[in-house]
Write a structure and sequence with these properties.
The complex is a heterodimer of chains A (905) and B (111). Chain A is of the alpha+beta class and 905 residues long. Chain A is built from 29 helices and 20 strands. With 111 residues, chain B is of the alpha+beta class. Helix content of chain B is 57%, strand content 14%. In chain B, a hairpin with a 5-residue loop joins strand 2 (63-69) and strand 3. Classes of the chains: A alpha+beta (905), B alpha+beta (111). Chain A binds chain B through residues 1-2, 5-6, 9-10, 23-24, 26-28, 30-31, 33-35, 37-38, 56-60, 62-63, 66-67, 69-71, and chain B through 27-29, 32-33, 46-49, 51-52, 55-56, 58-61, 70, 72, 74-77, 84.
Amino acid sequence: MKSARALRSRLAALFTTRRLDADLDDEIGAHLAMLEDDHRRRGLSASEARAAALRDFGGVVHTKESYRQQRGFAWLDALVQDVRYALRMTRRAPGFSLVVVLVLAIGIGVNAAMFTFVNAMVFKPLPGRGNDLLGVYSHDPTQPNSYRSFSYPNFADIRDRNDVFDQVIAHTASQVGLPSGDVMKRVFIEVVSANYFSALGVSLAAGRTFTAAEDRPGANIPVAIASYPSWQATGLDPSFIGRTVRINTQDYTIIGVAPQGFTGTTAIIARDLWLPLGVYESVVNDPFKNNRRGLGDRSNHALSVAAWLKPGVTIDQANARLTRLSAELEREYPAENRRQVLTVHPRSRVNMSSAPTTDKGPAVLSAVVMPLSGAVLFIACLNIANMLLARSSARKKEIAIRLAVGGGRARIVRQLLTESLLLALAGAAAGLLLGGWTIRAVVASVMPIMPLPVLIDARPDLNILMVTTGFAVLSALAFGLAPALRMTRPDLVDDLKDLGGSRAGGRRFATRAWLVVCQIAVSLVLMTLGGLFARSALRATAADPGFSYDGLILTSIEPSLAGYDDALGSSRVRAALDRIRRLPGVVAAGANSQVPFGDMHLSTSVTRPGQTRLDGREPTYTVATSGFFQAIGLPILRGRDFTPAEDVAAPRRAAIIDEPLARRMFPGEDPLGQSIVLPVLDGMRRTAENQALTIVGIVPGIRDDLTQRDPVAHLYAPAGPPYRGPMHIYARTAGGEADTIAAIRRDLQALDSRLPIVELRTMREFHERGLVLWVIRTAGRTLMGLGGLALLLAAIGVYGVKSYLVAQRTREIGIRLALGGRPRDIAMMLVRDGARPTLVGIAIGFPLAVALGRLLSAAMFEVSPYDPVVLVVAPLILVAAAAIATYVPARRGMRVSPLEALRTE
Amino acid sequence: MSSASEVPYGTLDLMVLKTLQTMGPLHGYGLARRIEQMARGILSLNQGTIYPALLRLEQQGLIASRWGTSNNNRRAKFYEITRAGEKHLAAEARQWSRMVTLVSRLLEEGS
């Protein structure tokens, strides 16, 4: 308690220094006066009494000093003093301070933005108790890749028959249609068990969570919990709860709103709505899942299950208990649970797979991008170090005086570092703002094309604040320490005489030249990488898909979003295709099940009869109607197209394969008329049944996405049953795409106003908005941006050093001019001197850039890390920028008047 | 005064506390003069040194201070011992006597 009181009094003293000092002065004054009085009473004269009093008291200043030391923390006192002094110094050079803060804001802002993404992906705690969540998994250990989801009854058994879990939740994600203008908007929802929110430990922003009645499979009570942004869109209208929202074809009542920033059990991926398990059958009809059997059916493996351990229970204990439970379930329900073993694993933050996964991917990605943005900060620091050194000539006299009057070197270094830290913190604050804007801009640009909604909170959390402060402290040390040490070691006498400035070209400049060398080297690395990625983005944009985009219009229809059954859905698609075919201007039209260069590609296993498996990558599996190949512009090389009869026939008999698959399956043979065996698909889900198809045609290969160098194998099957799911209609027009799009919209509206059209645009537009292309372009833009920043900073650095050098050599230049030196020669000499650090920097940076390019070449699209254009252009740009940055001050040097130059001394 | 020694570390606090206990509230000058009187010929005291000591004791809650008026009408800060100070003084005094006994015993043995 005693020390607490002392601490409080010391802390209080810090902030009331001035008043306390006055108090002490008063007290000592009174003391001296009384002493003086006593001495006078003993007969001393006034002046004698005064002297005696001071003698008896013994060192007024010393007393005050030790009193003050006792009063506050000496170091804190010094810190406050340092900060005050630093503030004064930064105010005295506002231009310099502003530039430093701006340069740092860029350097730290880039890193803050980058780290915000990394943080969201890798570090930021999941909502509520999400971080402690374990995934429950089910698989057959005798089969590879046999992880599967859970049926509701199995989930209920796991929930009710264990003593290791505190809470068990079930959920599954799906896409549903919300009407939005004249197209159907696909939104991402999650169907969750009633305890989902309470088990996660999050409370809703408004309203209530689901009840047990709403939870019961098949209950079909249409209630929904909305996302916070959707509530925000209404201006947080209190009447939002109780409103209805039309999902597919049913009206749902909004009963609650999820908290802000809620991403469920994963990071980053947002949901638009949460629905109770009871409405599963009405909303989950995506073709990957089986919706013919209800959720209550033990053979419908539809749910992801996750759980929290009871306190004190280990994962091993939980696994042991689950092994026993697996055996019980297998005994009781052998048909559905044969050989299935239950396990728990920590869950991935970003993956929703039914198999256990780790977060290695995002972590590795982060480990790659952070150093790249760190390099920009590094250059910024080199730059500022350079500026501080340049400024040191201006402050040398001040520091020399402080050293001369006995200021400790450590104290002065600390003072200088405080100044650096102050600037760094200001830069960090500005950088946070800049980073926040950047993130908002990037998220806004990616949102419309993401297949899943992404939620990245641009508001800095504790992690981001800590890391940004770390950046600031590190950069303050990086750019402040060396100049501070150097500045406090001047030649005292010279500096006091103000001669220091004229001793040009000494070691001080050498340090600065090396700083420039580093900047140039790092800039070259960033510019080269930026160039490689930019070229890769250009190539990707111009990539030839294997068919022509000109005049190609894409219309995607997803009948399940309207709640249509399979028969009605496919008949509507056929009717739509017929109408589009008959439109004037449409040369050819056909449909298939997945868009080339789209975001999703389904594959299938396929064998020749009698074979067990096909080596290599599984072929892409696409359902196609008659006329599809003609519409998209792939010629039938041999054999024939599907017939209109085959579009509806069941069972399916025919198949068309492409050349790459033909070469792999039938080397040296004629594939036409051959038989192939593949699993029967239910929707897009593979079943255990097999079917045989006969090859009727061969088409050329195409690539599925930009990352593929060569066409991959494809297998095309007719569009008849049992296929159900979205269909994409391609219309080839002879021109006038906009008119045709309008005509298609009108026609389909007339056909069926409820028909869920999810895409209606040109193929080129669709391609432009592809996710892969976005990633490649964004990588290109980001790295180009970083490279550009680096270039700018390096040019500023070169300019600064050169200006300093020219200023230092003013007298020399004056003498040369006076002796008849030609201004042009002098400028050349200055430029030549300036070129050296640039060339050394390039010589160091070049191999580094090539090495890093090789490391990252896997992420580049069709660009070699030795790309000659980039490897020549990047150094040239740097040399040009450095030359300009050198020439401007050199020209100034050229114009020096000899008289003036000599007079400056 | 030249033979007088410096104030041993830590003893000044004890002297201040004891003086305040005996004399009641005192200002800094009165305190210094009283200690000087008692110590005449034994200790040399720079009067200023009592101020850090007073602050230290106040921070520890052993004494309290308030501004008041001295006998000859000067504004001065008066110090007075607190209950905690009394307790502390008693404990310190016991400790001090024990130390003194021990040290003198050792010194006598040696002589």
